[in-house]
Amino acid sequence: MKGGRILRVLVATAIALLLVVGIWEGYKWVGQQTGDYWPGTSIDLPASTDDLTMPHAMDIADELFEEVRDGRARLPLYLFLLKKGWFTLQEAAIGFTLGLTVGLGLAILMLRWRVAERGLLPWINVSQTIPLIALAPIVVTWGRQQDLPDMLSISLIAAYLTFFPVAVSALRGLQSPDSDHVELMRSYAAPWWTVLVKLRLPAARVYLFPALKIAATLSVVGAIVGEISIGTKTGLGRAILEYAQRYAVSPERLYASVIGAAVLGLLVFGLVSLAEWIVVRRTGEVTS
Amino acid sequence: MSNPVLAEKAVVIDGVAKVFNEGGDSEVAALSGIDLTVEAGEFISLIGPSGCGKSTLLRLVGDLLAPTTGEVMVFGKSAHEARLDQDYGMVFQHPGLFDWRRVLANIELPLELRGWSKDERSARSAEMLGLVRLEDFGGHYPRQLSGGMQQRVSIARALSFQPKLLLMDEPFGALDEMTREHMQLELLRIWRETQTTVVFVTHSVPESAFLSNRVVVLSPRPGRIHSVVDVDLGDRSDDTRQDPAFFEKATEIREALRAVEGNG
User: Fold this and answer.
1) Model-level pTM?
2) What's the rounded Cα separation, in Å, for the pair A112 and B220?
3) Mutate to test the interface with B, among A194, A197, A201, A283 (most CBs of B within 10 A)
4) Cβ contact A187–B141 (<8 Å)
5) What's the ipTM?
6) Fewer CB under 10 Å: which end of chain B, C or N?
């Protein structure tokens, strides 16, 4: 049963990948035949199909095995991206953990005091309208003044994106137990804290996990954007920035690094889904 | 402070009234002038049309609501003290089991909150599982059980710490007729075995007649006690349902209800 499940996911992933490559190459081929017009018309295709805009999928794949410089060493691009991705993953993981803690903390605060909900919720919403590009230099300047490593500043930026979906969905989840459950705990004369631990937190899990999946991918986005805006010397963001500047010379390389970022996002998404399956699905609970 | 004279009485309701949203635009007088005494070991039903405040009255006994005026005593203590001492178990219309806990863990919830050790808990929950005849389902999650089985778990949970009083709010209201009749027999068996006092809210006439020693008929808006019907049918079995004495009592209760609804 479990093995079959994993096999199904693998097969589905492979089919999806083939489909994307097929559409990519098909579109490119049509464009090459018609000179970037819709077949039989003189309407421009939305994207040009030359090798600079759309390199061949195989060329992008080949690029992953090209050697690149990493300091004094030389190594294949995929290993280079793995190395940088590992760094970014750590930043994202710290950011995710921080965001989870802060988000949960805020949700519990808002649950406990209605005043806090009225006072905090608007600010939590406003916080997400501030562009990261503006926030990043502030965080990093402040971080350097406090002698924090840049890596931690980047994690803070990732946490800034992460805490929001956690706080909002956790609050909904904590408020989700119906009155029967709450009255039952009251009939046991259970104090507030016990109700939180025995009833509200477990009930919140089914609301929390979908948000955690979003938060996990956001933490990767946050880490990469953080790296780019801080100008750190390492991480996936740095690699993307570098390859973006040399796009005209080798577009395949930028595409390859973007694939690296996507794989990282998928990885964290998968990890949270696995955790969800372990914690929630086996009890037969319905996930929202 | 425990009062020795009243300790014989499971519940004493003295001049109780309940007004919701007092002084507000949506002020509702839910109950008025309620006096009722429930003897220890008795099975008493509260019946009445919707809006008669029977569930409210049950919640006043359980100190889930506070009376606007009057006093509720449970085993000689105030209802509040009785709740803090966890003197009663509660069963709602919906089983209200925790989805993330297996059946045994659900039954053990109140024991956990009382700080029982793991061994004490599993001994008691196994015993309770036997009482409600679900021995084979301890490791199941609630969603794997039928509604009737879930309600039996809920009863086992309410009885796990052996409270002297069981408060039940239309516990069989969501069950189909066959399951319901089966559960009624089970409940009576458990009641005899545990010698618990039961206060049972229902809107079913045959159910109240079949289960109770006394049936309290409430009239609506505001809820008042219209009459109290004594029911003495001896030991109940499925045959009781065909007994003329049973029909007679059911008719008596039904007529009281008709009178109440006519006035309402």
Assistant:
1) 0.80
2) 36
3) A283
4) no
5) 0.84
6) N
